[in-house]
């Protein structure tokens, strides 16, 4: 067990968060990493729980019961049917977890999936977790979303926007800024001394010398040249249809992609149940499972906890890597 626990937020109470939390504790109770649940203990069924008053108590009880820092729900959850009345508790769970991480009382934050439409209806002003965490624990630059599974790490430069809007919004500065964040994170969080970054082209065949669009020549290539000039091992723009083969993946440590599906399709194809979402560019460690709230199967006992277990393990590994890199 690590010296400090991780904190796992409640996520959407009507989704599969409580179910996969219980399954994750059952899988990790003897090996760790130790974590506490920041939510309503009444939502946890079928496992022993222990209410604690402070994060520091979690490691000592983890093998016997899941430690819970209580965050009560105003409305009893109805599985499969989110209630905006609980939005404040969901947001409060995230805020509290982040504050404990900033205070050095936990090793990192792992977030259960949230239902963004419900939070938005209740007045939440952020597109999702990543942007909210950037407000709470950012470093002055936009946070970066990395998706990881065994054998592949990817970063989408543009994330949750229409494809046409993603192409219009893409700039050399965006690619350059994210390339810098990724290179620094690979060194600090993953212990890779000389990270190699493969950068995808926007267009088919990376534009094929401008015959399929000039964005790869005029927008992507200058960012790569600037990264190389700064001493970062960046290569591209590469055709996205060939850069995710097994041989290609072995040649780099992270792929920087131009839009959401270009990055997420290969990760989810390789390991749908074990993918992990990592937020780079924060003052804290944050990971999450790479799936949503799964309202359609909530309460049916069908939820797979593999991605959450992978997220907890990776958060602990990143925390340890950061500790080793700190003078």
TrEMBL record:
Pathway: Cofactor biosynthesis; pyridoxine 5'-phosphate biosynthesis; pyridoxine 5'-phosphate from D-erythrose 4-phosphate: step 4/5. It is an enzyme of class 1 (oxidoreductase). Keywords: Cobalt, Cytoplasm, Magnesium, Metal-binding, NAD, NADP, Oxidoreductase, Pyridoxine biosynthesis, Zinc. Its cofactor is Zn(2+); Mg(2+); Co(2+). Its EC number is 1.1.1.262. Binds 1 divalent metal cation per subunit. Can use ions such as Zn(2+), Mg(2+) or Co(2+). It catalyses: 4-(phosphooxy)-L-threonine + NAD(+) = 3-amino-2-oxopropyl phosphate + CO2 + NADH. A divalent metal cation binds at residues 160, 205, 260. It is found in: Cytoplasm. Homodimer. The active site is located at the dimer interface. PANTHER family: 4-HYDROXYTHREONINE-4-PHOSPHATE DEHYDROGENASE, D-THREONATE 4-PHOSPHATE DEHYDROGENASE. This is 4-hydroxythreonine-4-phosphate dehydrogenase. It comes from Falsiroseomonas tokyonensis. The lineage of its organism: Bacteria, Pseudomonadati, Pseudomonadota, Alphaproteobacteria, Acetobacterales.
């Amino acid at each position: 067990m690590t010296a400090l626990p991780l904190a796992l937020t409640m996520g959407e109470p009507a989704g599969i968060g409580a179910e996969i939390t219980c399954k994750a504790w059952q899988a990790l109770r003897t090996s760790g990493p130790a974590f506490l649940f920041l939510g309503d203990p009444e939502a946890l069924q079928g496992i022993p729980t222990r209410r604690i008053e402070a994060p520091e108590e979690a490691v000592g009880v983890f093998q016997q019961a899941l430690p819970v820092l209580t965050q009560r729900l105003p409305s009893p959850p109805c599985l499969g049917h989110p209630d905006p009345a609980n939005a404040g508790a969901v947001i409060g769970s995230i805020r509290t977890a982040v504050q404990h991480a900033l205070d050095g009382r936990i090793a990192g934050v792992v977030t259960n999936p949230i239902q963004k439409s419900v939070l938005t209806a209740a007045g939440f002003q952020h597109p999702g977790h990543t942007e909210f965490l950037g407000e709470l624990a950012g470093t002055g630059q936009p946070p970066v979303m990395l998706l990881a599974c065994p054998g592949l790490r990817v970063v989408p430069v543009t994330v949750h926007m229409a494809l046409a809007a993603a192409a219009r919004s893409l700039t050399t500065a965006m690619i350059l800024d994210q390339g810098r964040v990724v290179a620094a994170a690979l060194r600090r969080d993953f212990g890779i001394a000389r990270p190699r970054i493969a950068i995808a082209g926007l267009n088919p065949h990376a534009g094929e010398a401008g015959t399929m669009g000039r964005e790869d020549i005029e927008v992507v290539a200058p960012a790569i040249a600037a990264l190389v000039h700064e001493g970062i091992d960046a290569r591209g723009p590469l055709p996205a249809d060939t850069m995710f083969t097994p041989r290609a993946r072995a040649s780099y440590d992270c792929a920087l992609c131009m839009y959401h599906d270009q990055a997420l399709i290969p990760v989810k194809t390789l390991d749908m149940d074990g993918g992990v979402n990592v937020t780079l560019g924060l003052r804290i460690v944050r990971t999450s499972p790479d799936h949503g709230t799964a309202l359609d199967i909530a309460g049916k006992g069908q939820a797979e906890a593999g991605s959450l277990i992978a997220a907890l393990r990776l958060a602990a590994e990143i925390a340890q890597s950061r500790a080793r890199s700190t003078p």
